[in-house]
Structures
1.
Amino acid sequence: MNDQRLVKLYGVIGGTGLENDLDLRVDRSAAGGTCAGFSSAANVYTGLLSDLGADYANGASSLVPLTTSETVAYEFTVTLDPNTDTAEQGNTATADFFWEVRTA
Amino acid sequence: MRVVAEPSDPTLAWSPPDPGTELPGSDPVPEARASVRELIARFAALFWTFSIVWFTFFALVPALVGWAPTVVTSGSMEPSVGAGTVVHIDDGVDLQTVGPGAIITYRDPAIAEMRVTHRVVQAITDDNGTVVGFRTKGDANTTIDSMAVPIEDVEGVARLVLPYAGMPKLWAENGNWLVLGSFVVITALAGVVALDTLYGFVTGSTMSRRRGRGSAIALVLALALGAPSSEAVLAAATDDSRNDFEMSSSWYLDSIDRDTPVAHWRLDDVGTPATTVFTDDFEAFAGYNTYGAGNFVSSNAQARSGTRSGLKTGNNDPNGGWKLLPSVVNGSFEFEVWVYRPSGFLGGSIDRLGLEDATFNGYTFNVDHNGNSMSIDRRTAGSPTRIGTRVGFNPPEDAWYRLELVKTGSFMTLSAYDGGGTLLVSTTATDSTNNSFDRLAIHGGWDYYVDDLEVRQIAGSETVAVDRIGTLDGSYIGNPTVGEPSLLTNVSSTSVAFDGAGDGVLLADSPVVNGTTRDARTAELWFSADTLTGRQVLYEEGGGTNGLNIYLDGNTLYGRAWSGSTGWSNDLQVTATATAATVTHVAVVLDATGARSLTMYVNGVAVGTSTKTDAAAWNAHSDDGAIGRVNGGTEFHDGNSSTAFPFAGRVDEVVLFNSALGAQRIANHYRAGA
């Protein structure tokens, strides 16, 4: 599949260690989906928050191309890793999420 | 438009009207209207055609001076550069001079075969100040592009921007054939009319319709399809709002409270308020004795308050001094003193004060100004042995600082504060060797000064086990030791130690907990058993007919629930194997909402479930409850009993819920404290 026309997700992730204990899952709805009654049509990303790519080249994609004027919804689910140590109490994480699409 | 159709020449033609000549059969007024319409049409055609030629000229001619045109097909640079704009790129610009604001075209770092035309927002330089790349941004984007552009990927800097000149190419690439076709037809017609008009002006005659059409179409095709080709790029980024996450500093309590407990005995009870036993500001110096070859004297060289202080001088530890306290301090205490250590030590560098008994057994702190550390010492016949954790600490010198040693049960905390009351460092130790103290002891190196000293007695055991959720406070029975180290990790709390001889916490009947018929209960606690001998009750509620309990029998851990009043007894039971002197989290979950089940979790993992298909509620179960022993009666695996069966060991964080918590919640409770 041509890499172009894909919507990619990447992020600028920071923190004091909690970013390594947060699991992130991002799902994409089918065309026309909304946040209300969200239904996943494709998975965009599953993994540690800290492992999310930091730029377009390393971004995550559902591998479903974007079509003109298409509207989709994305669901972000962040969970604390079950193996998190209590020493992580008080730690923080920050995340700026970016969407980017390129067409030719 | 006025059209003159000559039968012999079907070519569209226009001739300037001769005001003195009237065409045969014509009506002068309609003829004048037709002339105006034709004039407007021919001017429109000329305008259209000249515009096309003008754009084409500027789209193509700059290439003659080495500028490369590229058609922008995205809106990421709007409004300055819209889709369909032709941008001429000059590849002869010295990129070292390019800075923010310039529009550059470059090979996309993400997709090699694509080219992007975006504005420079930052030039990236190396340590020598040489530009090695750029950060770019589309004017319409909210964020800068995620990937930096290496300078070698830059193809040139924008020199000339021609809006709309590349629209035919954009239509062609996007497959807008209807629009493109309409454009071609209109342009062809306009071109024919325009050429015909020009031809008429120049020659006074009309050109052939075929020649005119052919020339116009050729012009349009050249413009639409033969225009300089370039990759089109759309780069759009959206910046979501900043997402901040913070892990609670009270994870355990947050986890518990999320499930709405009905009772929670943290067992952090530390006794009645401390009472002052002894203070000394050293303004009046009396009652101090020497220990060994040391000396402890009054001094006016330094004073935190008043004019005098006590001075430890002479020989090193354990030599020093001591003074009898007005009354004996038993078990738990608070000892607070201000210390001044001059820099440039005369002798040893360690400050050591504390409480001891008649044979100089006790506890003193150890603040090392040379080794820069702090710890707690146990004193045996005056000799120190370090216990607990030795922490790094560069103590103040030539300044007063405060030390506080707090002993609760066998758990000790030593904290150092600066003159402003800010905590500098603290350390802990656990030791139960010494529990009675009748004197203040001054040891350590020399010289150092002490002032404003205070000793407070903390009650050795508590009478009330506070319920932090409701009003079901428990009553300590026997002589349990409060203030023991927490059984949880990184949780600020203490535990209570039961001696196995009858210690425990008695819980009265409560409609919130056991006085009402219910269909669910979750009971959980942390424990560490000293031994696994005999039967030891950790928790029980109810009596021999209806109730629930958690207990040890040898090394078998039992969780049980029964409700004889509603027809079920001695049939819900789960067991697991216990280990002595090991911190263990146990949770028992009764669910009698339908088919009855009892599940026991050990360290967050289900170890077994006992189920019955007959449905019946869990009857109200009076006959009190207890932590660490039986209160009234209970039902064991081998029958009812009202024997106490006291537990020997430590218990912490006993929590009750009037709901059947799931496996994930129990695992979370364990993880938050493990």
2.
Amino acid sequence: MEAAHAPTDGHGHDDHAHKPYGMMRWIGSTNHKDIGTMYLWFSFTMFLVGGIMALIIRAELFQPGLQIVKPEFFNSMTTYHGLIMVFGAIMPAFVGFANWLIPMQIGAPDMAFPRMNNLSFWLLPPAASLLIAAQFVPGGGAGVGWTLYAPLSTQAGPAMDLTIFAIHILGMSSIMGSINIITTILNMRAPGMGLMKMPLFCWTWLITAYLLVAVMPVLAGAVTMTLTDRHFGTHFFNAAGGGDPVLYQHIFWFFGHPEVYIIAIPAFGVVSQVIPAFSRKPLFGYASMVYATASIAILSFMVWAHHMYTAGMPVEAQLYFMYATVLIAVPTGVKVFNWVATMWKGSLTFETPMLFAMGFLFLFTLGGFTGLVLAIVPVDIQLHDTYYVVAHFHYVMVAGALFSAFAGIYFWLPKWTGRMYNETLGQWHFWLSLIFFNVTFFVQHFLGLAGMPRRVPDYALQFAEFNAISSIGAFGFGLSQLLFLYIVIKTITSGEKAADRQWEGANSLEWTHLPSPAPYHSFVTPPVVK
Amino acid sequence: MGNKGLKKWAAAGLLWFWTMAAWAEYKLNLQTPQTQLGEEIYDLHTIITVICFVIFIGVFGFMFYAVFKHRKSVGHKASQFHENMAVEVAWTLIPAVILIAMAVPATSTLLTMHDTSEPDITIKATGYQWKWGYDYLKGEGEGISFYSALSTPQAQIDGRDKAGRANNPHYLLEVDNHMVVPAGKKVRILTTAADVIHSWWVPALAVKQDAVPGFIRDTWFKTDKPGIYRGQCAELCGKDHGFMPIVVEVMEPAQYATWVAAQQKKIVAAKVDPNKVWTLADLKAQGEKIYAQNCVACHQATGMGVPGAFPALSGSKVVNGPKADQIKLVLKGKQGTAMASFQRLSDVDLAAVITYTRNNWNNKTDDAIAPTEVKALR
């Protein structure tokens, strides 16, 4: 994050003599490291915005009754918390990792399309502004849930139009980012860097990028149909005009299920770098990891309707989606087994990145198991749209993707900044996050089982204790993330100098071939990979 | 922290755990099922959860063994193995078999769930923003039709009556009119909706079915246990999604017959003489009731609506404009907004509620709308 102040290697003409300073360095940047940094800071900012929304939700749910907000505002908070965390926080975080790491890990000087890279980033702030501005238009934010189900979304106020437009922009950004990543990986690998020699992180992003290119247009289509239903007299989702509200759900989840893996797969990639490094042992089953990831990606297109078992479907369709969904657990299981086998008979140490990676492994698997429970149609009929589902996907998204992102930040921060974070504080951050995460979300399984629906601003009295516990946990979790911000800033400003190969078990190119911090322009001449 | 401090913490921890266990009503599992299908689902959930738990313990048993025995600090040297075809094949195939085996028992349950044939009673449940309507379509009680809305007082919800809330065992789970069914009969529920998607859910009866506007879905239940079973709308449906519960009262068949007779008497009593001449005062009085049942959630008791979301009626151009325009709007609804069509209300009720809005708050049109005027515009 301080890369600009680091000495650059060589004086080739690629190394701008008029190296940009000040604002223009960031606005006009075509440097993958700068753009990666911007993605990560943007993502963290959105994480705080979405986090504040989560805390408003949890504050209202601390006690039964309506204390703090009105139901329509509450609905708006659940909607934008979801949208901002998914599209504003988690996805950009992993694109940030991709920008920083892919060129360095494959021995390329930069991304394939640096200007498009700049554009994909700079589309994000306007999209985020639209999502935030939606709170302030007449009628307030659209309280329709992040899934934007029609016809509720047809009814919503002008905030819905801003939201639709924001999604269009986010989609364009994601597609451009993906094209860039695919092109970079397929065309710019250093001599000798065969596809099956790439670090697994690059593989996971290659697969994710294909998923993004395939499904973002589907989402754009769904929200565009909503837009024309709202303003231009079409009836795609209106039964009175011959449409079907459930059609929206099919289209949305055809995007939505792969989206789950768009978030999870890069997280798998990060963990697959971190666990071998701290086990001092090569990743177990590299090839099977690649195949498992690809299988997950392909299967993710075939299970979408398990999100809509209660919407009404023929029994044959429910059976198909149930069996397809339990099968997607097979490649996911293979990955978990491979990670555990990587640790087996290693020489383990437990620095912060490893702790977060193990936290990921443990809790993501738990979330995977509740996913299996939900895959079974008759059981899902009871649990659909309850807090059980809320608990399930937060185990996968927060303890899964977010913990993996933390693991990645602590792992590569020394490479990015040339400085070491404070290990004690890092471990504090891990344990606080781990404990408060579970306090927040574990009890939500019980709430869902006992029958508390999701997206309600108030609840019956028998749910009071668990909701109070969950709210306390949420505030603890939120505050713990300020510690993370402090640790990162402290590292950048005054961390101890990091070694070029800070982690003895790390052996991808950025650790073995580049100094810490990585120079502004790296691999201007490609390394030779044996 | 010294040894003493540690003990203190342990004691506090134990105390906490003990109080946890003391919360007897603390629900950690699905509600007690009241139907046979519900019991099957309950058992399915238990089996799957136990299988998952065992696998979880197994996998992470390995991980934690490695964490304790294969750590650098105890001097463990890393092996460099990184491939084993046999192991990979085994842990692909074995889980696949276990997973399929888990889904098999669910298959027969699922087939039973879909078997809505030969019901004794068929009831249509219609979701409205934000209440339920029930129409008894077939079987004993045919012709009964009523709405069912939250009956928890607003003062308990917004905190003006905290004591009332604390002492209300059915806070947010109570309605004015229960959906009543007889015990021991197969009840088929048809779900649909008037505006947006809702979902009809009663956990103890193990039914949840989305109510999709313009479409009919069905589900069924049959229970031998009389009692009152409470559920909620499960699909986000706008502002008052959290405030449209479902209450099903299961009665002994004899008691049910009495209930049906009473309901049918009410229907006869409520029949309005079509030749009755309605005065402005009559219409306003009737209109106030209809307004409270159908309009108040959005347009508010003050007639001021919610700025930006729901327009005010007080001082509104439509309400103070030509009668026909307002009648048409209420009959047809307004596409692309939350204003639904109210065709389902009777001519009298529509005439009354429109009259009420035209002569209340700041609106003083002095118009009395005749039911025939509504009929003419249908």
